[in-house]
Amino acid sequence: MTQSTHLTSLVDSNIASFVADRAPILVAIAPDLAPFAEFSRDLLRGGKRFRAQFCYWGWRAVSDADLVPDSGVESGPKAKAEFGALVELCTALEFFHAAALVHDDIIDNSDTRRGMPAAHRRFEALHANSSFTGNASDYGRASAILMGDLLLAFSDELVGQALEMLSDPRASRAARLEFNRMRTEVTLGQYLDILEEGAWPVVAENELLARAERVIVYKSAKYSVEAPLVLGARLHGAGDEHVAALRAFGLPLGIAFQLRDDLLGVFGDAERTGKPSGDDLREGKRTVLVALTRETLSPGSRRLFDELLGDPELDAEQISMLQATISNSGAADRVEALISQHAENALHALAASKLGEESKIELANLATLITQRDA
User: Fold this and answer.
1) Is the separation of the CB atoms in 208 and 291 below 8 Å?
2) Do the record's keywords include Metal-binding (predicted)?
């Protein structure tokens, strides 16, 4: 078993235990709250645990091998406590990610997530199947907002538990500040995404690409890669030089990660991604891919493209037409080139750093995995 596999196994077990422990608390308040535990458990079973893995290797990049249980080297109580804190922190990141997904699906009016109905759709179905009064859609959205809030609260609870296990108050404070920073950035990045979907007609054409890039940085890149790396390092009390090296690697890699997501959101195989093909087109995402496409279109073609983009009723033929427009514009190829360039920049920064050699190898492998994936 590889160290990453061992870590994700521990995180999976920790997630299951945490939800199982909280389920009776919810039901004790009212039996009607059982769906919150059920839906959370189902959502958290999915995912690739990328954030947990980056947190682990950010920690390993600045720590010693003898801190890792099962490494073949005797670990003392302090080392075991720190590793326990790391597992809690990795678990917290997965809860935070799940909360973001629930809220993101509400905002985007998405039907599915990880091959299952999105949380608001599950609550909507609960309303309909129970013959409740009122509007099922409104009930589903309102309930899912609260589920996302609960998952966010759980993530903060897990961070608190992790930091209580540390003996170094400076490391604890630094990790807390990084988590708070990440939470602020992704929340505001989500708003910037909403803003672009509505504001693009009144924004100068030459600003649209830069604004789409800004969304990538704050909505996804930082919290998907950079922040987990830094959180792991801060847990061990890493200094500014190591943290700067991890940021120099993490940010361009996070951008490449999201650019790959943007391509999958338009061209991905639904059976692999767990979301319908072309879903980003129905949602009207104003991504870098879209900005690059629009740059090449004639005024008439651009008007038609803009009219179709964001129509939730797009049929398969219209989706196919938009996909062809994007492909023929050369935008998809340009995004592939951007992915390669950002990934290369990340790997150059990693190679030039003074981080642990084993971690550098594993982080390079992760970089390849997240930028060349098909789901």
Assistant:
1) yes
2) yes
